[in-house]
Amino acid sequence: MSYNVQPLRTQQEINDFLFCLRRNKNADRDVFMFLIGINSGLRMSDIVKLKKKDLISSKNSRIVEKKTGKTRILYLSSLQDLIQEYTKDLEPEDYLFPSTKGGHIEVNTVYQMFQKAAKLLGRDDIGTHTLRKTFGYHYYKKTKDVATLMEIFGHSSEKITKRYIGINEDEISGTLLNFRLGF
């Protein structure tokens, strides 16, 4: 089986995924993690380690990405009401996504959770990167600003970014939808 993780391309796909997450034992945590992911474009390895202080220290908080070591500004002002509600009973040093075993939830645990949701939805293209790709896909569809998205993701070319979020396939499919010659 190939590893072909795709974004959630429609609001209905996002709603369906949320529907599955809301049935989890730790639904509040899991839904909040999903919403942070699709609204930030962070890698799951950075999301699981977030603490309350990372999101409430200033309007646009900064974190250091695990993979790149680069500082990344989090633009989450549109989620402030949700963040305030979710973190109201947490201490600044508390993980946002705690494990039932202590510490923070592991990326592999999130992957397994997403695989359960994917199975319920009849999909085989869901993984932890689905959130990052969903952010990128919808950001691009809304803004058509691939240069800024490339910067957000830390990619070296627009071509890489468009391929990463599955835009090339969509654009080719869309342009060829009613393309016919010789009839």
Topology record:
Blueprint: H1 11-21, H2 27-40, H3 44-47, H4 52-56, E1 62-64, E2 71-73, H5 80-87, H6 107-120, H7 129-143, H8 146-153, H9 158-164, H10 167-176
Antiparallel strand pairs: 1-2
GO molecular function, one term: DNA binding
Pfam family, one: Phage_integrase
Domain Tyr recombinase: 3-177
General description of the model:
This protein is mainly α and 183 residues long. It has a single domain (11-178), classed as Intergrase catalytic core (hpI Integrase, Chain A, Orthogonal Bundle). 52% of the residues lie in helices and 3% in strands. The protein has helices at residues 11-21, 27-40, 44-47, 52-56, 80-87, 107-120, 129-143, 146-153, 158-164, 167-176; strands spanning 62-64, 71-73. The protein has a two-stranded antiparallel sheet. A hairpin with a 6-residue loop joins β1 and β2. It is globular and about 70 Å long. The chain starts with 10 loop residues before the first helix and ends in a 7-residue tail after the last helix.
